[in-house]
Amino acid sequence: MARMPRPRTRTASRVAAVQALFQSEQAGDSAETVIDQFIRHRLGELPGTGGFEDGRIPDAEVPLFQRVVRAAVLQQSEIDAQLAEMLPPEWPLARIDPVLRAVLRAGAAELRMQNEAPPARVVINEYMDIARGFFTGAEPNLANAVLDRLAHSLRAGEF
Predict the structure, then answer these.
(1) How many domains, the chain?
(2) 1 lies in a domain?
(3) Is residue 117 part of a domain?
(4) What HEC string does the chain produce?
(5) Following CA atoms 100, 124, 4, 2 in sequence, which dihedral angle do they give, to the nearest 10 degrees?
(6) What CA–CA distance (Å, rounded) separates 119 from 111?
(7) How do residues 34-76 score in pLDDT, each as one tens digit?
(8) How confident is the model at residue 108 (pLDDT cuts 50, 70, 90)?
(9) Is 80 part of any domain?
(10) Residue 159 belongs to some domain of the structure
């Protein structure tokens, strides 16, 4: 009997955070409003379902999801300024696809949580994988490059 792979709960939390940040930006909702909506309607499994129906994210760790979304929204002006420094001049943050912007903001927020976050390389790889789930072009490579530059700036001791 084949064993089912262990759910990647932290990855699921990060995917949910990216989706929540996208929704927050598009709808103009506060971090707390989006967090509440996701906890009530998007995170966890519905009884009698297999999990991912109707856009649900069954395996997300709610505390990590909340921490990333809150940090990204509450520190957005500082994060955006840092991301702008890391992006090529011909790609201002406002020109970036809104989903990719959410990926970058979530990754940056987590990189800024130096005491609570996993190693920078883990954070970068996770958000690059998430970008691959949304994009088939060069966007994942851009996410990798920007988050790598930011990590070297924020956590130079890890490199």
Answers:
(1) 1
(2) no
(3) yes
(4) CCCCCCCCHHHHHHHHHHHHHHHHHHHCCCHHHHHHHHHHHCECCCCCCCCCHHHCECCCCHHHHHHHHHHHHHCHHHHHHHHHHHCCCCCCHHHCCHHHHHHHHHHHHHHHCCCCCCCHHHHHHHHHHHHHHHCCCCHHHHHHHHHHHHHHHHCHHHC
(5) 120
(6) 8
(7) 888 888 776 765 444 444 445 566 677 788 989 999 999 999 9
(8) very high
(9) yes
(10) no
Crossing angle (nearest 10°) for helices 9-27 and 98-112: 120
CB-based contact 72:25 (threshold 8 Å): no
Structural domain containing residue 36: 9-154
pTM: 0.87
Q: Which residue has the tokens 């009997």?
A: 1
User: What type of residue is 140?
Assistant: P
Identify the sign of the CA torsion 121, 145, 91, 11.
negative
- CB atoms inside a 10 Å sphere around CB 89: 6
**CATH number of the domain that residue 100 is part of:** 1.10.940.10
| pLDDT, position 140 | 95
What are φ and ψ of residue 75, in 5° steps?
-110, 20
The count of residues in the chain is: 159
